[in-house]
Each structure stands twice: as structure tokens, then as C-alpha cells.
């Protein structure tokens, strides 16, 4: 943290310059918030006047037993059926604005949501905007959204922090809450959200019941200097809400990491899980009801991150990675909870973002030593997604440089050093401090 404080002045200078630029060009600040794959995110110079609220009837979608991958590539949205190998374009480049991250399938795979709230049938068809059509420049109207489990219904956050609940048929329910950050529990009934009341002057986390409309405060903390607490996730059993409190009076210091806390939904009891970590959802995963997290300070993902395991009620973290010469991050647990896939690179601050090779490792929640699955000079493997049977991992393979050619490949846990290419992403951008995001989701039919 002493190093972070020392760097704060230089980052302050950069912030001032950025603010001055933003005042001259209001679009600059929006660009600064974009993910690493900025070329895929950016709106194309087209008019979105013809996109309707109501979605078309979705054709039958049967991608086969291995499912389908939806991914954005250089401004277009693709769908790959793994069983047949058929890759087709759902949304061509230039057809609509803001094709890209995040990409997510509905529960039954019939719909793909992409960008900031657009939806298209997985079998192909017209793009629709159930979260609401907004003319330029407010067309991309939502910052975050989730599909409800077992329903073709989205919950989305608008630019002003309101939550709306639209169906693909065009019906919209406006929820009577405003949020700073929010998370939906696994049942799809409860929304936990950060809130800043004017009186009393403290920060809160509240829970809203989508069925009854009731609201309840589960956390009250001292007034945070920058923003309300950032809600991260619910525990799988729905008994705990994880969040990051913003306590420092410095955005620069906060960017080097925040504490991760858990609060009980029933009792309001609060426990600190780790002193500091980067507030990224991809740094948190669950093996059953056990939390696995990448923790450690410094804004560079390559600098000193380690993976720990913790479980309620005590939430005492136990180290799963001990090699401090490497940085370990982006853990994801297999569906049955027996394996964890994670990215790793040598530990330190990169002179250029994404210049160091990232390799893919597998380890057990029981504490066995990590085993290297994929590693290649000049290339990086990241963003792991498990197959439902826990036998293979879908990863992004990219050149180890800021502006890189990238592809998707499938790796079997039983065949180290082998990754079968399934799709090309084209040229992708870089994430600040090495944190990359991709418009990508894998629908796998339930057995």
C-alpha cells in the first residue's frame, strides 16, 4: 500500500489530464469506461431508429449436446454450434450500435443478450431492445443486466440507476428502487443493492423482494468517502451477500484494491474475508458453498495476486496458491466443484499491458499443487469457462501484446498442452493494468 500511495500523485496528474480532456470531449469519459475489447464495444456510425421493444418469436433452437458459443468479433455477433461446427453471424458489423461485451444466453438458450441490453434469437432473427429504445446518444441505455433463471425476462439497470424488468414480448415492469450496484440471487427472487440515503448519513445494502415488493436493510456502514458499497455476489445458498466497501478518500488508492466483506441476509452479521482485492466479478467463484477468490493489492492483475478459499460462517481464507513468484487470478470452479481453472503470469508490473505470457492452470479446492494445463511462448490463455461435465475448458488464446489477434479454443483437462481452436475473434484490444474482458458465453443444454 505504501507503493500505491507513492504512485497516487502520478495517477492524480493523469486523472486531471483525463478530466480536462473529457470536458473538451464528453465522449472521452465513456471511452475510458469501456472494456478491453473496446473495438467490439464501440457503437458503429448507424442510426438505431428501427429497433423495436418487442422481440420476434424465437425459432426452435437445438445446437446439439455440446451446446453453442455466442461471441463478439470485431463488431459482429457470432454463434458457433460445437456439435456441427457451424459458425454463423447473428448480428453483422454495422447493423446495430454497441455489439460486444457483455454477452449472455437466456436460461433455455433461445435468446442472446449483448452489448448494453440488445437481444437477438439464437436461431437467428431480428434484433430487439426489450430494455427500452433510446435514441442517440442515449441508445445504449443499461449499464448492467441479468437474465432471470428459468424465465425469458431480463433485469436491467438504466443510466440513472433505476431497475426495470422487461420480457421479450415487450412488457416492462419498473422496480421502485434505485441502485448503485446490484446482484441477483440464484433463485431470481431477491436483489441486493448498494444505497446511499441522505438521512441517516451512512451507507447501506438493501434487499428487494421481486415477488412481494418488500425492502429490507441488511447492512449499515459508516459513510464511505467515494461511493456506496459495491455489491459483488450472493452466496449460492442465498444466505450471504458479498460486497466491497469504498472507505478510502481516494479513487486512486481504491483502484489498488478494496476489502471483501460478507453480510448475512438473516442476521446482518458482517465478516471480513480479505483485506484487499481488485473488485472484479471474475476474481470470485464458488465451489459449492465455498468461496474461491483472487486476492492481493495493486491494480495490476500481474502483481502479487493469490487464490484463497473461504467458507461461512467464519470466512477465514486459506491459501490455495503459495508460489509468490507468480500472480494467480481469474479463478473459475468446475460445475461439480472438484477443479479450479485459473490464469497465471509472472509476478510484477508489466511495462506494457498484456505483454507477459499468461498460462492456464488447474488445481483442487483441497489444496493440491497447481498443475499447468496450457502454456505457450508469445501467447496468453485467459477467461476460462468450464464444460458442464468438468472435463474441458473454453479459453481465449491471444497474442501477448496490447493489440492482439485472438481466438477461442477448447482444452481437455486430460490433455495438457493441447487446445483445439474453435473460433477466431480477430484483433482485440487491451485491458488497463492487464484486466481483459470479452463478449463471450457458452450455452450448454441441461442433461
Q: Which class of secondary structure composition applies to the elements?
A: mainly beta
Terminal-residue CA separation: 48 Å
Kindly report the average pLDDT value: 86
- Please state how the strands of the largest beta sheet are arranged side by side: 3-2-1-31
Q: What is the CATH C level class of the domain at 280-436, in words?
A: Mainly Beta
Which second-level CATH architecture of the domain at 280-436 applies?
6 Propeller
Number of helices: 4
Strand content: 35-45%
**Could you give the count of β-strands?**
31
| Biggest beta-sheet profile | 4 strands, antiparallel
The CATH topology label of the domain at 280-436 is Neuraminidase
- Radius of gyration, in Å, reads 21 Å
Instruction: Indicate the overall shape.
Output: globular
Helical coverage, percent range: under 10%
Ranges with pLDDT <50 over ≥5 residues?
A: 1-49, 134-141
CATH superfamily of the domain at 280-436: TolB, C-terminal domain
Amino acid at each position: 500500500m505504501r507503493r500505491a500511495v507513492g504512485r497516487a500523485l502520478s495517477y492524480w496528474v493523469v486523472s486531471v489530464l483525463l478530466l480536462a480532456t473529457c470536458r473538451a470531449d464528453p465522449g472521452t469519459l465513456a471511452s475510458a469506461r469501456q472494456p478491453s475489447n473496446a473495438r467490439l464495444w464501440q457503437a458503429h456510425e448507424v442510426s438505431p431508429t428501427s429497433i423495436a421493444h418487442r422481440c420476434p418469436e424465437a425459432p426452435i433452437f437445438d445446437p446439439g449436446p455440446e451446446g453453442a458459443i455466442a461471441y463478439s468479433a470485431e463488431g459482429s455477433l457470432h454463434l458457433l454450434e460445437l456439435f456441427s461446427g457451424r459458425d454463423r453471424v447473428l448480428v453483422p458489423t454495422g447493423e446495430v450500435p454497441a455489439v460486444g461485451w457483455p454477452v449472455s444466453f437466456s436460461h433455455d438458450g433461445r435468446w442472446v443478450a449483448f452489448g448494453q441490453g440488445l437481444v437477438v434469437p439464437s436461431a437467428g432473427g431480428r434484433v430487439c431492445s426489450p430494455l427500452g429504445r433510446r435514441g442517440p446518444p442515449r441508445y445504449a441505455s443499461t449499464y448492467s443486466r441479468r437474465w432471470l433463471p428459468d424465465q425469458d425476462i431480463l433485469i436491467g439497470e438504466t443510466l440513472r440507476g433505476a431497475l426495470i424488468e422487461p420480457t421479450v414480448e415487450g412488457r416492462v415492469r419498473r422496480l421502485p428502487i434505485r441502485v448503485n450496484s446490484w446482484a441477483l440471487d440464484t433463485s431470481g427472487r431477491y436483489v441486493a443493492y448498494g444505497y446511499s440515503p441522505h438521512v441517516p448519513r451512512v451507507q447501506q445494502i438493501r434487499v428487494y423482494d421481486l415477488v412481494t415488493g418488500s425492502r429490507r436493510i441488511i447492512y449499515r456502514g459508516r459513510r464511505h468517502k467515494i461511493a456506496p458499497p459495491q455489491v459483488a455476489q450472493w452466496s449460492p445458498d442465498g444466505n450471504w451477500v458479498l460486497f466491497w466497501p469504498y472507505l478510502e478518500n481516494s479513487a486512486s488508492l481504491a483502484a489498488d484494491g478494496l476489502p471483501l466483506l460478507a453480510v448475512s441476509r438473516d442476521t446482518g452479521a458482517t465478516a471480513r474475508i480479505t483485506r484487499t482485492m481488485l473488485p472484479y466479478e471474475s476474481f470470485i467463484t464458488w465451489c459449492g458453498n465455498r468461496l474461491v477468490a483472487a486476492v492481493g493489492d495493486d491494480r495490476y492483475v500481474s502483481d502479487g495476486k493469490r487464490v484463497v478459499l473461504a467458507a461461512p460462517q467464519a470466512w477465514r481464507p486459506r491459501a490455495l496458491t503459495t508460489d509468490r513468484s507468480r500472480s494467480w487470478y481469474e479463478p473459475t470452479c468446475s460445475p461439480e466443484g472438484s477443479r479450479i481453472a485459473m490464469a497465471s503470469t509472472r509476478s510484477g508490473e508489466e511495462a506494457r499491458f498484456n505483454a507477459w505470457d499468461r498460462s492456464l492452470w488447474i488445481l483442487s479446492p483441497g489444496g493440491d499443487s497447481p498443475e499447468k494445463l496450457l502454456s505457450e511462448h508469445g501467447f496468453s490463455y485467459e477467461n476460462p469457462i468450464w464444460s458442464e461435465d468438468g472435463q474441458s475448458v473454453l479459453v481465449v488464446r491471444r497474442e501477448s501484446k496490447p493489440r492482439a489477434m485472438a481466438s477461442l479454443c477448447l482444452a481437455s483437462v486430460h490433455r495438457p498442452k493441447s487446445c483445439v481452436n474453435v473460433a477466431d475473434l480477430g484483433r482485440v484490444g487491451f485491458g488497463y493494468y492487464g484486466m481483459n474482458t470479452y463478449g463471450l458465453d457458452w450455452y450448454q443444454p441441461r442433461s
